[in-house]
Amino acid sequence: MLRTLPPRRAAPSKVNMWAGEPVEGSPWTRQQLKTLEEERPGQTRFDTHRVKLQPEPRGLQEPLPEPIYVSCPVISRRRDGTRVLIVTPAGFKAWVNANG
After folding, report:
1. How does 35-47 read in b/e, with b if 16+ C-beta sit within 10 Å?
2. Tens-digit pLDDT profile for the chain (100 aa)?
3. Residue from 23, 10, 34 nearest 92 by CA
4. Domain residues for 50?
5. Do the beta carbons of residue 73 and residue 86 sit within 8 Å?
6. Is 40 left (phi over 0), alpha (psi -120 to 50) or beta?
7. How many structural domains does the chain have?
8. What is the reported pLDDT for 100?
9. What sections of 1-100 are H helices per DSSP?
10. Is residue 36 part of a domain?
11. Degrees, nearest 5: CA angle 46-94-87
């Protein structure tokens, strides 16, 4: 009796949580707007948190690239004020340090 192999499944490629599809006239991406509507239905105003992203160097001899700053909507804060829950441009929720 021959054994058959299970069907192949393709693993999804790595999603960049800091990239999203812009929406004309909105400060947020399409993915952020979808997540915000799911998390806070009816709410239209959100505080903004600026996140600093440090790009990877391209080579050993090259200087570090300039950091990139991304503005993200805040949907929650820790009581002690040290961390905020943001929605990344790809629509993922992430806890980040409140001081940058």
Report:
1. bbeeeeeeeeebe
2. 556 666 666 666 777 888 899 999 999 999 999 999 999 999 989 999 999 988 877 777 777 788 889 999 999 999 998 999 999 999 999 999 998 6
3. 34
4. 30-57+65-97
5. yes
6. beta
7. 1
8. 67
9. 30-39
10. yes
11. 35
pTM: 0.77
Q: Does a structural domain hold residue 34?
A: yes
Task: Tell me the two tokens of residue 73.
Answer: 């909507």
Residue 73 CB-density burial (10 A; 0-12 exposed, 13-18 middle, 19+ buried): buried
Q: What is the pLDDT of residue 91?
A: 94
Length of the chain: 100
9 in a structural domain: no
Nearest to 28 by CA among 13, 12, 40: 40
pLDDT of 54: 83
- Whether 77 maps to a domain, the answer reads yes
Strands (DSSP E) along 28-97, which ranges?
A: 48-53, 68-77, 83-87, 93-97
